[in-house]
Protein 1
Amino acid sequence: MNKISRRKFVTTGLAATAGVSGVAAAASLAKRYGLLPPDSGGVFGPGETLTYAAQRLLTKHSLAREFPRTMISKVPFPNEMPPLSDDFKRFQAGAFADWRLTVDGMVARPVSLSMSDLRSFPQRSQITEVVCEEGWSYIAEWIGTPLIEVLNASGILPQARYIVYFSMDPDWWDSLDMADAVHPQTLLTYAMNQGDLPVSFGGPIRMRVPRQLGYKNVKFINRLTITDSIKSFGKGLGSASPEGGYAWYAGI
Amino acid sequence: MTHWITTICFIALLISGGEIVISHPRFYWGETGNDLTPVLFKIPIPSSRNLVPTGYGYVLPDQNGWSRYLHFEAAWAAVLTGIVYAIWGFLTGHFRSNLFPAPTDRKWGAFLDVIAKHIRLRKSDEADAFSYNVLQRAAYLIVIFVLFPLVIWTGLALSPAFNSAFPAGVNLLGGRQSARTLHFLVSVILVLFLIIHVAMIVSAGFASRMRAMITGISVAPAQQTEEERT
């Protein structure tokens, strides 16, 4: 007969108990230190939490790779887009002179910025890679205002936890935690490769988050809302992505 | 125990990885690559994305959402299990005594012996029921200490956030698209290993091998029949 010893049973049982209580302890620690992503529920929650927590500990201040000018893709790849709305086309016909970026929520001074207002903020350019979750990528020079400049100008309150950003395309909105919001490479991009940001690449304003995948880089940004809780936005999962089945945190 | 967790993870990684590949079944070398750049090679299958020029007239449904969640969760489970296995393997001497070739087998002749035996279709020795021959040992060592680390490394090199903290990881591989291509190729080699691995178990007697793997007790074929008679 099978000779599985009692000792083996006992050690396996102890190891399993230790494992389960270890996971429970880790989950409560993660929550305490803000290492739980908004989509941490469900069967894929443990994997997402491990990824997000590990990367927040490892990559808080690290910079995405920047490339020499010679590596800029000759023909950048504009991804497929849903058809533009009539409202959007009206803004486009007016060269986005009437486009507004509103900043509201937990700020001392809610503002509504025109494109020229945005261009008056300190500028930063970076040559970084756009990486799509599907597998393809290209490199371009992105020029814009670091998000932190706009947040500071509107007097962001200390209890802020997330920056929610909205697109003119109502199906598309997302949010950043504070680590990515204050990151120097997170740009409100309005120019690309020495020209205005083309509509096919998200113009007039695209959120550029080079430490995360392409889908986090939402196009046609027209509103920022600063909040201390993500629960009241959409289904409370942090962005439109988890509602469509994709992870909120796209740093992988 | 670690073997079966790894099996579940591997199957999950394989299915979800396959789904992710379908959204862009084109492979490149270097840093960048997309529908507008030349490919290194492509898989002749339809894609789940409209813009990929596959030559097929239709687009498959997008399954990337759950596939990606599953891929990364299974990867975590596999890596954590692998760490436990590696610690156990070194502490108990499993690697030293069962996987590293026995001292007498540490020469090329030993490999040739095993290969010759297989070519002549000789029945395996009774000793083979209890230990791995030198060819098996080499294959397991390559999988455990070369292919698994390589597939983890090339996978991590696809994470934009991980790359920001450890840029050398992706740069050493020749860029992001090279890392993706290598990740795919190493996975293909692992699948080939899996097929041979399962085929060998079947040929060695599925029931007796499974019993040995689940209970940890190995019985030689002769002994086994005797036991079953009683």
Protein 2
Amino acid sequence: MKLRTPAVVAALAVAAVGLPQVRRSLARLLILTTGTVVRDQRRIR
Amino acid sequence: MTIEREAGQPPVWQNDTPEGQAPVMEGQDWSAWPVYDSATLGLRDYWYPVDWAERFTRKPRPVKILGEDIVLVREGEEIYALHDRCPHRGVPLSHGRRQFPDTVSCAYHGWTFELKTGNLCAVLTDGPDSPICGKLKVRTYPVAQRLGLVWVYIGAGPVPPVERDIPDELLDHDFAMGGRADVRNGNWRFAAENGFDEGHAKYLHNTALWRLFKVMPAWNKTRLQQEGPWLVRVQEELHWEADYPGLGVWTNKRWWKRMPLPDRPGKGKRVNRIIDSLNIPGFVSIRLPGLLRVAYPQFIHYEWYVPVDEDHVRYVQIMVRFEKGLTAAAFKAKYLAGIRWLFHGQFTGQDAWMVDVTDAPPERLYRPDLSITGWRRMVERAKPVVQILPSRAKAE
């Protein structure tokens, strides 16, 4: 049971990052704290 | 700076002679480029990237561009820009509050302006029937959001689409990008000249960690070529080492460094298909109003030099990889883990250092500075509208 806990937490964290809302929040946190952006850009025209 | 002449000898240039500074001689100042010389605060009638869109919230935020004080406010998905000065007593609207949707109220007496039009729509300390309402407005600025950045147009007359001032390749393709934006010391022209400067990279940056495993040339010969809106630096000769009589050999070659660095993207072995299709004849190119493009075989680095005031420049740098899926994800991870710190950190930090301490004119240019004079000529030929210093504008 003890061994499983970190694995479950890690899996939950990975799953959470997979959620668009969580990804957006993380990206926003990155921008606000470091002024750095990473993103995908779709063609504009 | 003085010039000592002896009969039949070329002049010898010296700094800091006992006689003090001599008058500036012909060729040492910027009188050959009068428009450029007067463009301390930049060029009007262009769109400028200001900062990442995510950094603007409902809270009014002041930003200075081309010497103009602007306040930016978010309302939902839209971002609005107004002159950051309440016409009542000159208090910055960026100190203001958001009392009603689509408005900003001055912190001092509650003068309330519509974000979209800048119209004074209410004065909270003078009642709903305040006679001054509708008689005043603050200047507004066109705003657009592209590439995750907020763009503001500084100029008069018909407003061109923001796409005019964004490189075509960034409009026509999907890509992944990483970037940073900050305000740095130094005038925007020093930043632009540093970016397009032929001579400095191979010496200043050969200590940068970003170049730790890549050989930089010792010296080279360059010509300039105009390609559409871009002025391109094309390498004609590349020298990886040179013997200086009486001094010794100078080279950047080391056993742990790979070479050669392709001098143009098309010469690399593995060139990204889209970058290859751009047919860029040289490694570095620049265009108005101050955008640099450095094309590598697998990615392109762009940097905008947005004038803030006489002594500061807003430096917006992005790295672009025309990839999708896993390659794009790997690039973004690499950007956060390394590129952000090495290239967009220490490497361009060395540029920031030089831009900060540059003090010209007077100046004494040398052969590789044809890149700098070529850029100045390009600005001159474009006959741009120069931003006038607010103090000068008042006097006129």
